[in-house]
Specification:
This protein is of the alpha/beta class. The chain contains 7 helices and 9 strands; from the N terminus they run βββαβαβαβαββααβα. The model has no long low-confidence stretch (mean pLDDT 89).
């Protein structure tokens, strides 16, 4: 495959199972632009990836109802979502079919599509972060060789610890959106002000 063509098959796992406890309300369905925070996060991923694997848990039936007709969104239920985000990543990875895959968050609605593009073209058998060693950012591009390591890890594991056991690459992209997750009322207020 030509390194500079966007891939025919490229999965992006988005954990969307959490309780939004720091927000105080269900952050993924908060209004953003013409739709919701999660809608925007999914659209950004699908601007480059062929499929989003959306891992649902808290209020999962509502998310299934909302996205069930989108052929490019695979809904995966994590019944153990209260064990934390790593358990959702593990469930999502069981369905990954591409040679590399992205992981990003459902509460990061501002990631430009060129970030996915730049990460893809920087691939080379190791995990690629868009930011720096101090602030790695999202999305993260991960080689398929790490898939089973994550799936078979203890549920209390840290995704970062697993990724950092091997070589990683940083692109040092200067883009504040790769760090912008909306998990507090203050962050949501800032997001709304930015989008006006």
């Amino acid at each position: 495959m030509d390194k500079y063509l966007s891939p025919k098959r490229l999965d992006c796992v988005i954990p969307a199972a959490g309780l939004s406890s720091r927000m105080g309300s269900w952050k993924l369905m908060l209004p953003y632009q013409q739709h919701t925070i999660l809608d925007a996060s999914i659209e950004n991923a699908l601007s480059f990836c062929s499929r989003v694997i959306l891992v649902v848990g808290h209020r999962w039936l509502e998310l299934v109802e909302k996205y069930k007709d989108n052929e490019r969104v695979l809904l995966v239920r994590n019944e153990s979502y209260k064990d934390g985000m790593f358990s959702s990543i593990q469930q999502g990875l069981k369905h990954v079919e591409s040679d590399y895959f992205f992981i990003t968050h459902g509460d990061m609605p501002c990631i430009p599509s060129y970030i996915f593009h730049d990460l893809w073209f920087a691939r080379g058998g190791c995990t690629v972060f868009p930011g720096s060693a101090i602030r790695p950012g999202h999305p993260v591009l991960i080689p398929h060789s790490l898939k089973n390591t994550v799936i078979n890890a203890d549920i209390k594991s840290s995704m970062k610890e697993i990724l950092f056991r091997d070589q990683v690459k940083y692109l040092d992209i200067s883009c504040e959106e790769i760090h912008l997750d909306v998990d507090t009322p203050q962050a949501y207020k800032c997001l709304c002000e930015m989008s006006h």
